[in-house]
Amino acid sequence: MAVNIPILARNRIDHIAYLDPAPLATAAASTPPAPPPTSTAEASAAAAGTPARCDDTLAGAASKREKANGVSKAGDLVQGKYAELEKSGAKQKTDSKVVLVTGVTNINAGLLTLTYGFCFGVELTMNNVAAGFFYNYQGVTPQLAGIAASMFGLMNIFARSLGGLLSDFCNARFGMRGRLWSCWIIQTIEGVMCCILGSVTADMSAPYPSTGPKYPAFVEIPKDEWRVALNTSWGWTPLVGNGCNVLDDDGKPFKVLACGTKSIKTTDAMKDCLGIQDKLILIQDPPLGHMMIDGEWTQIGHHDDCISHSGTFGIAVIIVIIFSVFVQMAEGLDFGIVPYV
Q: What share of the chain is helix, strand, coil (3-state, %, to 5)?
């Protein structure tokens, strides 16, 4: 008795044929066996139940589709590389001299170059001077000064992209004027932050000029409990006097500029005298005052308003971080204007 077997044709439910299974069995018996696989790829495909040639066909179709979408490989433009487009006539070959003259004589390009210099140029300047500012003026160790200075460049992680997002947002709301005004406002705030950073220590004394007279250096030793209990040196301690006689390589007392700071490598004699194990220490000009040295009251320090003793290191780092955010945002805002010049 014949059995009706539904066969789906063309993946559509409405195309159904009912065939007798006997002719199908006869056709299958008369069909020659498939040849053995000639490659590893064909063997793997056969084991998976998928013809290798079918896989190749699908891969080729995917490659053609990627090329049509311009994502198969990198190029100068979505349409292809400059050389290929110029050879085919799809793109006119440009003269580099004409491009240069056009850019130089474009007043908008010149103004945007100056504007970018006021943000990226400031970034390069800060990267060069920030560590020296914290070390020489704020009187912190070179290691801590480097970490504080790196905060400026670290804002690149998000601030420049934030400026680009702000530019796009203002463009969507106000058009090109929105891009220009947002760039001007952010860059103005950047300038204000620069002035604020300078004003924090504007009225204080700094190690200037560098050719001025030098004075005996002191070391500030932390007031640890064990030092107090053993009645050993703590606070501002001279390198010459009160039982210490630490000299430099020339056999002379260590000296620094007024309000100055210097990092030096410790010697065994210095470690024994000061009761420390540090490999590097800071020698400084102490705050203006008096202390007992070898049984006599002696004046120490030469300024009572040194930046290194002002306690403004923390606020300076915070201002530098905020300053950097606006600098990087201004760069991103400039990039938002460039394509329209």
A: 55, 15, 30
DSSP string, 205-254: B-S--TTS-EEE-EEEE---HHHHHHT---EEEESEETTEE-B-TTSSB-
Q: Show the tokens assigned to 149.
A: 């200075």
What is residue 137's DSSP assignment? I
Q: Which of 271, 272, 302, 270 is nearest to 285 (CA)?
A: 302
Give the integer Cα–Cα distance in Å for 25 and 32: 13
Length of the chain: 341
Tell me the DSSP string of 40-85. HHHHHHHHHTS-HHHHHHHHHHHHHHHHHHT-SS--SBTTB-HHHH
pLDDT in tens, 194-244: 999 999 999 998 887 777 788 899 998 877 776 666 666 777 888 888 778
Q: What is the mean pLDDT of the chain?
A: 80
Q: Quick one: pLDDT at residue 227?
A: 67
Contact 259, 282 (CB under 8 A): no
Beta-bridge partners for 298: 291
**pLDDT value, residue 229:** 64
Q: What is the pLDDT of residue 318?
A: 98
Which pLDDT belongs to residue 96?
Answer: 84
In angstroms, the CA 75 to CA 171 distance is 29
Taking alpha carbons only, the member of 218, 282, 262 closest to residue 244 is: 218
Q: Which residues of the chain have pLDDT under 70?
A: 1-74, 226-232
CA distance 149 to 313: 12
Amino acid type, 183: C
* Strand, coil or helix: 14: strand
H or E element at residue 323:
helix 313-337
Selection from 246, 245, 220 nearest residue 233 by Cα = 220
Residue 8's SS3 state is: strand
Write a three-state SS string for 84-106.
HHHHHCCCCCCCHHHHHHHHHHC
